[in-house]
Specification:
The complex is a heterodimer of chains A (484) and B (130). In chain A, strand 18, helix 15 and strand 19 form a beta-alpha-beta unit. Helices cover 38% and strands 23% of the residues of chain A. Chain A has two domains: 269 residues, Aldehyde Dehydrogenase, Chain A, domain 1; 185 residues, Aldehyde Dehydrogenase, Chain A, domain 2, CATH 3.40.309. In chain A, helix 3 runs antiparallel to helix 7. Chain A is α/β, with parallel strands linked by helices and 484 residues long. In chain B, helix 1 runs antiparallel to helix 2 and helix 1 packs antiparallel against helix 3. Chain B is elongated and about 50 Å long. The chains are: A alpha/beta (484), B mainly alpha (130). At the A-B interface, helix 4 and helix 10 of A face helix 1 and helix 2 of B.
Chain lengths: 484, 130
Amino acid sequence: MTIKTMQNLIAGEWQPSQSEEAREVLNPATNEPLARIPVSTVEEANRAVEAAQEAYWSWRSTPPVSRARYMFRLKQLFEDSFEELAELTTKENGKTIDEARGEVRRAIENVDVACGMPSLMMGYNAEDVAEGIDTVAIRQPLGVFVHLAPFNFPAMVPYWFIPYALASGNTFVLKPSSQTPLTQNRMAELLQEAGLPEGVFNLVHGSAEVADALMAHPLVKGVTFVGSTPVGKHVYAYSSAHGKRALVQGGAKNFLVVMPDADLPRTVAAIMTSAFGCAGQRCLAGSVILAVGGIERDLTPALLDAAARIRVGYGLDESTQMGPVVSREALAKIHGYIDQGEKEGARLLLDGRGIQVPGFPNGNFVGPTIFDQVTPSMAIAKEEIFGPVLGIVAVQNLDECYRIIEQNPFGNAASIFTASGGAAREFSYRVACGNIGVNIGIAAPIAFFPFGGMKDSFFGVLHGQGQDAVEFFTDKKIVISRWF
Amino acid sequence: MELSTFGAICKFAMELEKAAAEFYARLARDASPDRRAQFEALAQAHSRRMKMAEQARRELVTEMILEPIHGLSDDMWELAPGATPGELEARIASFYCAAADKVSIPQAGRFFRKLVHESEKLVQEAQALA
């Protein structure tokens, strides 16, 4: 079988990279190669930025309503290619086909919102700020933006940014994840099919060297990034040092508080998808349960029963409920955390290591894993595992939950399961996380709300999606006028 | 096969609707001229519902709907060879009824219940053709 080497999209043309270095994109269920991507050169990254800059002035002067029409066309193309995009996502990332469908839907919803850009980017004005003098605030695009994409949501995450940037008149350079670049490659083809002018959208495959070149390029106005906190800190510092706007979403450790009055069956169902959905490889995955006031006595057996029934397998099999993790390295890291949990004294109730999936002996599979007798100081309770590992910490009351959550450096999401409005209200009020779930396991904001965390989960001011994205990709110009 | 995900339920719904459309198309081909239009209408109704199931799979998928589903299997709705139109419609209605109870998102539940409601009318139409 011939393995295709992907190309870069620069100035409206798919071009092979001049680099001789390439990486394989592997199917996590089989570890067989799907494609090869070039480790592009810095020169190619620079050319992509220059192409975007070249396209900028005519694109920014295209009326917003005309730019929105490209988004309408793009939406239809994504709808028409829905299953193809979902299948590609599953093949390269490993998640189940239903999870991939959910992800593609989320991407499309962001295109939906960006279709309203003519209204979203309207400014405001005031007459007679002094007698005979009027003031107008106009939103304007800035120029070339860059997105450095993560592996875990190859279809969705770049679309927290791309539609808003383009519809508001900016041009764009995307560096897809080197582990999961194929979905974005196909989506870039669809952007072309939507008729975008040459250079408005560019895509360059590559490594950290390409990312650094894009961040440092003098023509780039802003950078968006989603990934781990250590890399995110570098991206924020490096792009800020080069004078860019930066929107950086980092890692997470999300707590699920279960109160004694929680609806247990529904809570268990929500925790299953929170902890084990996408094999735990998402920044909103719940990974530590704080079981309040003895609820763990009823909760733990129910969780074990539900988790043991999760069907692990190849994501393209419709009956699969949890797919493999993205790579052997990710698998080894998850195994390492399970080992460490045991060493630190947590009790391993359900062990996902060594799971066998018939027909897929080489896949990166790890089954649902549950620990109890976890303490807040253990690594599995503090650090981001990014795998299907759930720890249960028994606590006395809600105040203890607040202390544990506050001490954790991350602040992406937290959920409470309760029948008490008062408890839910207090939790929403006090917890320093960007996304709060009340009887919701995955507190994922829909496209017209901003998506971002707090503390070490986010660096910047404005978040992705919705009106925040419009703010991020535009600047406000004030025109003060007097007529004689 | 166990229908353990929303996507699996929708896929099976699409297969059921496709089979029903083909069933009526065959009957239409062999029917007397006065019955043909009725069978063709039923075939079209099921083709339309197949598209609706595909649209539901595409549009109604959310994080919450990804909660695992247990207790549904496609062999529970296998059609016996030689089934009558009335039996076919009743079987399809019963599937949607079960699916509506299993999915956790109200919007998806409403969609399946709408199909149950439609199926009840189709049962009457099909029985009238017997």
